[in-house]
From TrEMBL:
Residues 4-205 form the Carboxyltransferase domain. Keywords: ATP-binding, Hydrolase, Nucleotide-binding. This is Allophanate hydrolase. Gene3D superfamilies: 3.30.1360.40, Cyclophilin-like. It comes from the Bacteria. SUPFAM superfamilies: Cyclophilin-like, PH0987 N-terminal domain-like. One of its GO terms (molecular function) is ATP binding. InterPro entries: CT_C_D, Cyclophilin-like_dom_sf, PxpB.
Length: 242
């Protein structure tokens, strides 16, 4: 049985905490719990919100009580495991690094004692597990950033960050899907749309998917942006074995 604690989260939610430390194993447990409860369709459960180490279960107290919900959840999650899936989904994100697209690339390089080229190679040289979505629609919190690239957030956040900006904040990297304020170090930008409310599936990826950053030139950036704007761009999404 998966080990987790249950705590009250207001008058219409409970929080299931599986660990206190972020890890791929914990992320898989949280996703497995969310999938199990989603498939079970417990009467009164209105929403499931997975995070790094916990799952919030929102419910209607008029349809199910706290004690009954806790009993149902505990019973349903008795046999879940955090074992890795045989296949995982990879979403490739083209990124133009540096220049006006990544104004903090040199700052990250200086902090790491590396050249900008080495930062790009390290950042794009591995796949990143999406631990959770939050902050903005389609903002993916990614695990697995090379320790050499860990860089403190800006002392004074920017009031506006362009949509598609790729940044580093502490031990994490991520993509700003919408223009917004933010304090992460910006190292590049993608011309694709992680979030598009006009798409049948508005958010391009989900927790449990992987993101692969692919360096591109400014010329290629502009070409892809034109394809995105006219609806002819084909997103690169593949299934690969673990």
């Amino acid at each position: 049985m998966a080990s987790f604690s249950i705590s009250i989260a207001g008058d219409s939610a409970i929080n299931l905490e599986f660990a206190r430390t972020i890890s791929p194993e914990t992320s898989r447990l949280v996703r497995a719990a969310a999938q199990t409860l989603s498939e079970d369709r417990i009467l009164g459960v209105t929403e499931l919100v997975p995070t790094f180490c916990s799952l919030m279960v929102c419910y209607d107290p008029g349809l199910i009580g706290y004690d009954d919900l806790c009993a149902r959840v505990t019973g349903k999650l008795r046999t879940i495991t955090g074992s890795a899936d045989s296949l995982h989904r990879i979403v490739t994100i083209p990124v133009c690094y540096g220049g006006e697209y990544g104004p903090d690339l040199q700052t990250v390089a200086d902090h790491a004692g590396l050249s900008p080229r080495e930062v790009i190679e390290l950042h794009s040289g591995r796949d990143y597990l999406i631990d959770m979505l939050g902050f903005l629609p389609g903002f993916a919190y990614l695990g697995g950033l090379d320790e050499r690239l860990h860089t403190p957030r800006l002392a004074s956040p920017r009031t506006v960050i362009p949509a598609g900006s790729v940044g580093i904040g502490g031990a994490q990297t991520g993509i700003y899907p919408l223009a917004s304020p933010g304090g992460w170090q910006l190292i590049g930008r993608t011309p694709v749309l992680p979030y598009d409310p006009a798409r049948a599936q508005p958010i391009l990826y989900a927790a449990g998917d992987y993101i692969r950053f692919s360096p591109i030139s400014e010329k290629r950036y502009q070409a892809i942006q034109a394809q995105v704007d006219n609806g002819t761009y084909h997103y690169e999404i593949t299934m690969e074995e673990n």
